[in-house]
Amino acid sequence: MPAERPTCRRRPAAAAAFALLAGGSLLAGAPASAASPTAPAPTPAPTPAADNGLARTPQMGFNNWNSTHCRAEFNEAMVKGVADTFVSQGLKDAGYTYVNIDDCWALPNRDTSGNLVPDPVRFPHGIKAVADYVHSKGLKFGLYSSAGTKTCDVQGFPGGLGHEQQDANLWASWGVDYLKYDNCNNTGADAKQRYRAMADALRATGRPILYSICEWGENQPWNWAAEYGNSWRTTGDISDSWSSMIGIAHRNQSLAPYARPGAWNDPDMLEVGNGGMTDTEYRTHFSLWAQMAAPLLIGSDLRSASASTLAILKNTDVIAVDQDSLGKQGTVVAGSGGLVVMSKPLADGGRSVTLTNETTTTRTITTSVEALGIGGASSYALKDLWSKQNSTTTGAISASVPAHGTVMYRVTPGTPVPPPAGVSRLSDLPWTSAINGWGPVERDRSNGEQGAADGRTLTIGGTTYAKGLGTHAAGDITYYLGAGCSTLTASVGVDDESGGTNGSVVFQIYRDGTKVADSGRVTGADAPRALTADLSGGRELRLVVTDSGDGINYDHADWAVPRLTCA
Ligand code: GLA
Known about the structure:
By secondary structure, this protein is α+β, with helices and mostly antiparallel strands. Alpha-D-galactopyranose binds at residues 65, 102-103, 151-153, 182, 214, 237.
């Protein structure tokens, strides 16, 4: 890492971050200058989540594309058979809900009224009959179109561009619950406008329709698509090979801070069971998709799925990680030499961890609870989510991982240790959980966005601080108090490394879920602001930093000299 590195960074483009990983270098710890544009770009507009209330956890279901493409076996019998299998094989009970159909369901031409017409050979009873059948099983039904003049298949089925309301009304009348909206034949028209037009049309139908944006990451949808849709594809199409799957995982890993309930990064549908990878590789695929809070859309023909395919798809422990209500996408916390460790914060205060061996020989992968962002307990329970074995650790986590394999644990902290009596600096104490926008929370340094200890001296409005916590919105740090503490004081502000006027956040302190201090909006141009919080009787302290509404760029937020007084 260079001794002198540029201070504040706008978010690296996903492709650049991927290049770092693909080149075999460490994502965590790589110089930011390699991954960041040289000049600051304008701050993006806020991106409130789509307000349809859907996909509070990532959507789960089926889509035929990866197994059939447009071949003739994609038809009514297949879709009904998959719905039957959802029920008979326990996939519905495991959480899979949406039975979706992809391209090639329509005829190449609209009818004289301009309506889409289902292909009468594939779907002799129309689409509504299929949707009704799927609904009769207690499942939901989805279909496909493109934000262009035609869909993607070479046969060129009609797209939705310019027909948004007419098509959305038709789909709603059929009982459609989910739309995958592709990007082919888009005439070069503005992506935001094209995807927004369909979002507005879907909303105007009055039917809740999950909206899956599929523009392959071409226009950095993580910066805008949450305003319109429930998920957005981050890459081109997956294929049924290790290199395709792991390459897509790398690209999607760098986008973690953009995912949240109702708005997910989508690294494309699952290939599990399609035959091009080993079961070890498919377990890695499924583990990584769950760890990345990705939509889980089964892409193999479930009617003929093997027992091992079903065992992977029905691993309820791994599914629970994907569906965790906290709604955080896991982040890469170490990744050198093809040995990649990801940590995903969970609603119970624990973490799931994936240890992925991308090399071609068995390797030992080692990490620690501290690297995962948790601490402050004397022991931690580990559950291996594939072997189902339980164990405990005082902090070290290590496993022998086969080539292309993933070991996945759920890590649950034991009883936390309260802080010592007297006055402590928070940066000297172990937190029970630290969640940060980019990179880890730093002790006594600003947030450098990448690896551990890459920040600089904490500096707010020209004042430097030896002690404190360097964070990045959205940040959430938790400490166990054990009811013996009385007050917390801190000086807070956006670090000068954000570039003086960049960045704007709100600092908040919570005692057992009750807000006890709030900084109001603080920008990079502001002097340090003093916060005092009454912690009397509190068991848990949370330090929260939120973006103040203008995007999560430059939001380097310092908790300087955080003084905790305990009895
Ligand atoms: C694009 C999409 C795929 C699939 C095909 C259908 O390639 O990215 O997921 O929908 O179109 O033609």
